[in-house]
Amino acid sequence: MKIGAVLLAAGLSTRMQGPNKMLLPFGHTTILAATLTHLLDSEVSKIALVLGRNASELQVDSNEKVDLVVNPQPERGMTSSIQCGLRKLMSMDALMVCLADMPLLSSSDYTGLIQSFRNTEKTILVPIYKGAKGNPVVFDKRHFHEILNHKGANGCSGVVQHNLNAVERLEVSSDRFIADIDTPIDYQKMLKAIE
């Protein structure tokens, strides 16, 4: 089973009060590079890295596993970026929707989700940490056309809600699955986590 990942890095970083969060230092690299490296080291087959107006700022080392995609209208929201990435991954058997501002997720976290998805008969897999829905979420290819036609701006949560009987809720043991960076306070917390 080939599972492709859409890695979303087209956001406008409005809540960061200035800097593009993808370029912020994280360990010896940046937030985007750390997340991409962990994803590349997982069992994912292909990655569509979706950039927005920031595309020229974000230098990414070329890799045969990665397709760079530019969302021409990132202001339309996360759904439009997912759709841009999915169009590059239509040959995959499943899609994992990944957020580039979750650099604490490890390659084994991603691989664990992939393996769990391969072992479930359900067609959507959602990680759950202490009752909270996490990311990334994995969708079987039978949901691809619904994702492409989805009108809501907030990603694929509407697709999940529309297909609750198809959802495998995977209990995870780490808050890495819910830890993203929206504000300067989030960023400082994340830096402390890797000290």
Which characteristics define this entry?
195 residues; two-stranded antiparallel sheet; single chain; 6 helices; 23% strand; alpha/beta; eight-stranded mixed β-sheet
Question: Could you please describe the fold and organization of this structure?
Answer:
The strands form two sheets. Strands 1, 4, 5, 6, 7, 8, 9 and 10 form an eight-stranded mixed beta sheet that branches. Strands 2-3 form a two-stranded antiparallel sheet. The longest helix has 12 residues, at 107-118. The radius of gyration is 15 Å and the shape is globular. β7 and β8 form a beta hairpin. By secondary structure, it is an alpha/beta fold. Helix content is 27%, strand content 23%.
Structure summary:
This protein is an alpha/beta fold and 195 residues long.
Number of strands: 10
Order of helices and strands: EEEHEEHEHEEEHHEH
- State the secondary-structure class: alpha/beta
Main sheet summary:
8 strands, mixed
Radius of gyration (CA) equals: 15 Å
Give the topology, please.
Blueprint lengths: L2 E7 L15 E2 L2 E2 H10 L5 E6 L14 E5 L7 H9 L7 E6 L7 H12 L5 E6 L2 E2 L3 E4 L3 H6 L7 H6 L4 E5 L12 H10 L2
Parallel strand pairs: 1-4, 1-6, 4-5, 7-10
Antiparallel strand pairs: 2-3, 6-9, 7-8, 7-9
